[in-house]
Amino acid sequence: MAEAHIHRDLRSLRKAKRLTLRALAKACGRTPGYLSQIENGNATPSLETVGRIADALGVEVSWFFPVEAGRDDRERGVIVRSQARRRLSRMYSFDTSELGYQDFLLSDDLDLGLTMGLSRYEPGGRTHGAPASSSGHICGFVLRGRVRLILDNDNFVLSVEDSFSFDLARRHDIQNDQGEVSEVLWAISPVRLDF
Q1: Which residues pair with residue 105 across a beta bridge?
Q2: Arch. (CATH architecture) of 2-64
Q3: Pick the residue with more confidence: 68 or 13?
């Protein structure tokens, strides 16, 4: 049942967003103690509370109720079916749809030291072009199309099957300056979704 896993998803997402219980509680209008009870599996939140938590974390309510069709308990924490991918784009501090791209989480378990995702860039789409606020490392692999990676003062064009890796503290931007959709598979370590 989906409710049985809200605690795990809430804790791992809150940590990936680098929020304290106190900060999340303030943002969603609940107490830190109550959120702690939810995270520990000692309280089942109402749908209204799940909605408030989702808004505070910048995700859709469906984040906590992933598509379960065709998925058994052995797959939980291991397998992400294509129809069950979670969209990351809403949780960032900027609007990715205005920039012409979307990010999808490909990892099911945010408690590992690594997370993997997929970025889909529309023609003219680009990232927000700023360094991360804390340390981490990103690796990427171009699956489809062509992208331009601007890293500090360097400019690189990457085509299908080209890859990259760099420290997230560097100023960076990824752009799709061609007329078709481009896709980049990426991995970040340590897990962080607080862009």
Answers
A1: 86, 117
A2: Orthogonal Bundle (1.10)
A3: 13
Contact 59, 31 (CB under 8 A): no
Q: Which helix (H) or strand (E) holds 14?
A: helix 6-16
Q: How far apart are CA 90 and CA 61, in angstroms?
A: 11
Whether domain 82-189 has CATH 2.60.120.10: yes
Determine the Cα angle at 86 with ends 191 and 100, to 5°. Answer: 90
Helix (H) or strand (E) holding 165: strand 163-167
The amino acid that residue 185 corresponds to is L
Q: Which residues pair with 157 in a beta bridge?
A: 148
Q: Is the pLDDT of residue 106 over 50?
A: yes
Where in the chain is CATH 2.60.120.10? 82-189
Domain with CATH 1.10.260.40 in the chain: 2-64
* 187 has pLDDT over 80: yes
Sheet arrangement for strand 163-167: 86-87, 101-105, 115-121, 182-189, 137-144, 163-167
**Nearest C-alpha neighbor of 107 from the set 77, 69, 127:** 77
Q: Give the least confident one: 67-81, 89-103, 114-128, 154-168.
A: 67-81
